[in-house]
Amino acid sequence: MVLGTYKEVVAARSTDKQIQKIAQDGGIVSALFCYALDEKLIDGAVVAGPTEELWKPAPTVAMTAEEVLAAAGTKYTFSPNVWMLKKAARQYGLEKIGTVAIPCQLMGIRKMQSYPFGVRFLADKIALTVGIFCMENFPFASLQTFISEKMGIDPSLVEKMDIGKGKFWAYTADDVYTLPLKETHGYEQNGCKVCLDYVAELADVSTGSVGTPDGWSTVLTRTDAGETIFKAAVDAGVIETKAMDDVKPGLGMLEKLATDKKTKAMKVIDDRKAMGLPVPYKASSEKEDPLANV
Amino acid sequence: MSERVVISPTSRQEGHAELVMEVDDEGIVTKGRYFSITPVRGLEKMVTGKNPEFAPVMTQRICGVCPIPHTLASVEAIDDSLDIEIPKAGRQLRELTLCAHHINSHAIHQFLIAADFVPENLFATAVNSVSEVRKVAQYVVDMVAGEGIHPSDVRIGGMADNISEVARKKLYARLKSLKPKLDEHVELIVGLVADKGLPAGLGVHNQPIFTTDNLYGNRDNFDMDRFTEVMPESWYDDADIAKRACSTIPLYDGVNVETGPRARAVQYRGFTEKGVVAQHVARAMEMKSALSRAIAILAELDTSAPVRADFDPRGTNKLGIGPIEGPRGTDVHMAQVADGKVQFYTCLVPTTWNIPTMGPATEGFHHEFGPHVIRAYDPCLSCATHVIVVDDEDRSVIKNEMVRI
């Protein structure tokens, strides 16, 4: 169960040429939000939108397809989208909110829905959560530091960033730069070291590049709401799918990375627990499945 | 022969108070005294020495029934102490919040007094009507101020955020469609109060009214030189009551006053009636005034305008005055900020103004009408921290004088 509870897993990509061009991989997040907005399944989405500072995203309420697309593409630093949810329900007056979140943010969202302290009338207004696979996340200053100092490029020239094949990739207009992932270790957020969730186990729909070829994404539908919206988008022809068995490298790769993240984090959790440090997870000896996200 | 009728605590109100009536052989009240028995508020003390931003967050917890006026009075007092001029849109959003709260809070009172006025066959209708009105009103407070009960987005210097254009249109549409519903509701309440057939002249007194503004609050109309405050010991002519009474007696021009919806209606809306029925009618009619003002604000609000001013939080120890017209009357917070900390803080809450007037207003009628007179003021005395004394060492309770019903 290293991939959490899910209904179905498929390889998928947006059929929209424009989304394909600007998206990180298969453009699933953009395609789903655009479709849900068009069909009025959501009336807005909290996304990681652009700011005046390149590569530093900020939570933005997108209420049109244009606004969703302006936020397309992965930023490897934090966008505190959860913080914006209440404002989306209040000052923006939204009643069906979609949001994109990384695993730790989803844990926050689900906890907030279970214990709505200070967020009355918000829990039931969250209509669609799309989770993205996440191995780790970098503070903005970390990202700038290793791009400019280790890769030797001006961060403002970077047009796309990516992680894959054991490397951190930076694309400028003319060149492609890489940095072995182990060179980025120590720059990630401290909390990532104890995180047991790689595949956004608490989302309605989770997606990420691992397991599928370039230009495609792996998609796990997890809840009734997620399954309904995803299937409807596929039926409407907005998203095309392939069976996971028909694509390379396949589900095995995703399971391997999820297991790796959990195993590594579980060791840190156990070490910290042994030292008597507070960790918001159980020790491996305290749970049935030592890799469970609890 | 004079006899005493004591109602303690008085019911169908928020908080605890005692009504002591001296009656003659016919049961007619010859002397009425009403006083709060809810002890120590204390929240003002908790605010002293803290950052000014803490004051509205803390003092809104004075009450769960009218937290909006307390929040607004608190930010207004601190705005004044720090000499902050808030942007127009910020002020509009504050007023919009209060207008919606007037509607909500008056509806709560109508629910509380339903047992007095509503016959059984109409009870469900009246309660449902209250619920429908409250639902829309609270939705506005939620959207504009962040939370319906303890609003998080009313801030020193204005409001945390403007609302979006989508939200403005949504609220405008909802309030517009509330109008026929509210008209019907007000007609129902006014009709039920009339049907009760309370004796003419019940609750009429000759004390002046006190109010600072039509619906919001205006510090220009609160003259500190005309305001004094005396202790219950020098007010009540009964030593035992004077000792037990828990709130101070605020006076304007040296006399006790009536504040609240009737006072505002007389001062700003040409209303002339007096007494219990007039108070209920003025309260119900004020819901219409508040709705119409809320709709007007939403029609003209610029959702792209700034709502919060920059300010220097250090302060000059100026005494800031924050009078807000709460549903039950004028709520005045006063604050002094210096060196970035609150140096002094005090709250003069609506019912405190009314307390010395309410007792005597029961006089001249049978004591059975006493509670009606009290309830017509919609008294709210839950503005208190409930205090117990605990032994430092073994945590045992040494003293617990909380009122139990």
Question: What is the strand and helix layout of this fold?
Answer:
The complex is a heterodimer of chains A (294) and B (405).
Chain A: E1 8-14, H1 17-22, H2 28-38, E2 44-49, E3 58-62, H3 65-70, H4 81-89, E4 97-101, H5 103-114, E5 126-132, H6 140-150, E6 160-164, E7 167-171, E8 176-180, E9 205-208, E10 217-221, H7 224-235, E11 239-243, H8 251-274
Parallel strand pairs in A: 2-4, 4-5, 5-9
Antiparallel strand pairs in A: 1-10, 1-11, 2-3, 6-7, 7-8, 9-10
Chain B: E1 3-7, E2 17-23, E3 29-36, H1 43-47, H2 54-59, H3 67-81, H4 88-112, H5 114-117, H6 120-145, E4 154-155, E5 158-159, H7 165-195, E6 227-230, H8 239-244, E7 249-252, H9 261-269, H10 276-300, E8 316-326, E9 329-338, E10 341-348, H11 350-358, H12 370-375, E11 388-390, E12 397-400
Antiparallel strand pairs in B: 1-2, 2-3, 4-5, 6-7, 8-9, 9-10, 11-12
Helix pairs in contact in B: 4-6, 4-10, 6-7, 7-10
Annotation keywords:
heterodimer, A: 294 residues, alpha/beta, Nuclear Transport Factor 2, Chain: A, 2 domains, three-stranded antiparallel beta sheet, 8 helices, 31% helix, globular, B: 405 residues, alpha+beta, Cytochrome-c3 Hydrogenase, chain B, 12 strands
Short overview:
The complex is a heterodimer of chains A (294) and B (405). By secondary structure, chain A is of the alpha/beta class.
